[in-house]
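Need C-alpha coordinates for this chain, all 86 residues.
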Amino acid sequence: MRAVQERCGVDLDDQGRPSVLHWRNRTYRVTREHDAYRAGGRWWLGEPSRDCWVLECGSLVVEVHRFDATDPLQEISGWWVARVQD
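Here are the C-alpha coordinates for all 86 residues:
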Protein backbone atom coordinates (compact mmCIF):
# COMPACT_ATOMS: atom_id res chain seq x y z
CA MET A 1 0.00 0.00 0.00
CA ARG A 2 1.15 3.53 -0.70
CA ALA A 3 0.75 6.41 1.73
CA VAL A 4 -1.71 9.13 0.69
CA GLN A 5 -2.83 11.17 3.76
CA GLU A 6 -5.76 13.01 2.14
CA ARG A 7 -8.99 14.16 3.75
CA CYS A 8 -12.12 12.28 2.79
CA GLY A 9 -15.73 11.85 3.85
CA VAL A 10 -17.32 8.66 5.14
CA ASP A 11 -20.95 7.66 5.66
CA LEU A 12 -21.57 5.14 8.45
CA ASP A 13 -24.07 2.31 8.55
CA ASP A 14 -26.47 1.62 11.45
CA GLN A 15 -23.69 -0.13 13.38
CA GLY A 16 -21.18 2.72 13.03
CA ARG A 17 -19.05 1.10 10.33
CA PRO A 18 -18.06 2.81 7.07
CA SER A 19 -20.51 2.12 4.23
CA VAL A 20 -19.67 4.87 1.70
CA LEU A 21 -16.37 6.65 0.98
CA HIS A 22 -16.27 10.14 -0.59
CA TRP A 23 -12.77 10.86 -1.91
CA ARG A 24 -11.31 12.93 -4.76
CA ASN A 25 -14.78 14.02 -5.94
CA ARG A 26 -15.96 10.41 -6.28
CA THR A 27 -18.26 8.20 -4.24
CA TYR A 28 -17.35 4.58 -3.49
CA ARG A 29 -19.65 2.03 -1.86
CA VAL A 30 -17.85 -0.18 0.65
CA THR A 31 -18.16 -3.78 -0.53
CA ARG A 32 -16.02 -5.43 2.17
CA GLU A 33 -14.33 -4.56 5.45
CA HIS A 34 -10.95 -6.31 5.67
CA ASP A 35 -9.85 -5.02 9.07
CA ALA A 36 -10.83 -2.58 11.82
CA TYR A 37 -8.70 -1.51 14.79
CA ARG A 38 -8.00 1.39 17.16
CA ALA A 39 -4.55 2.99 17.24
CA GLY A 40 -3.34 5.07 20.15
CA GLY A 41 -1.35 7.65 18.22
CA ARG A 42 2.17 8.82 18.98
CA TRP A 43 1.48 10.27 22.42
CA TRP A 44 4.94 11.86 22.63
CA LEU A 45 3.97 14.04 19.63
CA GLY A 46 0.53 14.80 21.01
CA GLU A 47 -1.30 12.77 18.32
CA PRO A 48 -4.88 11.81 19.12
CA SER A 49 -6.15 8.25 19.06
CA ARG A 50 -7.81 7.06 15.87
CA ASP A 51 -10.09 4.36 14.51
CA CYS A 52 -8.75 2.60 11.42
CA TRP A 53 -10.40 0.49 8.72
CA VAL A 54 -9.08 -1.34 5.68
CA LEU A 55 -11.91 -1.21 3.15
CA GLU A 56 -12.60 -2.66 -0.25
CA CYS A 57 -14.71 -0.44 -2.51
CA GLY A 58 -14.98 -2.47 -5.71
CA SER A 59 -11.47 -2.50 -7.17
CA LEU A 60 -10.24 0.18 -4.75
CA VAL A 61 -8.68 -0.95 -1.45
CA VAL A 62 -8.00 1.82 1.07
CA GLU A 63 -7.08 2.30 4.69
CA VAL A 64 -9.09 5.10 6.28
CA HIS A 65 -8.55 6.70 9.67
CA ARG A 66 -10.95 8.68 11.84
CA PHE A 67 -9.11 10.84 14.34
CA ASP A 68 -10.83 11.77 17.58
CA ALA A 69 -12.24 15.29 17.43
CA THR A 70 -11.48 16.11 21.05
CA ASP A 71 -9.86 19.43 20.08
CA PRO A 72 -11.83 21.31 17.38
CA LEU A 73 -8.75 23.41 16.57
CA GLN A 74 -6.67 20.35 15.79
CA GLU A 75 -6.22 20.16 12.00
CA ILE A 76 -5.88 16.39 11.99
CA SER A 77 -9.36 15.58 13.38
CA GLY A 78 -11.86 13.91 11.05
CA TRP A 79 -11.60 11.32 8.25
CA TRP A 80 -8.46 10.61 6.20
CA VAL A 81 -7.47 8.19 3.44
CA ALA A 82 -4.17 7.02 4.92
CA ARG A 83 -3.10 4.43 2.34
CA VAL A 84 -4.21 3.03 -1.01
CA GLN A 85 -3.37 -0.35 -2.46
CA ASP A 86 -1.13 -0.06 -5.52
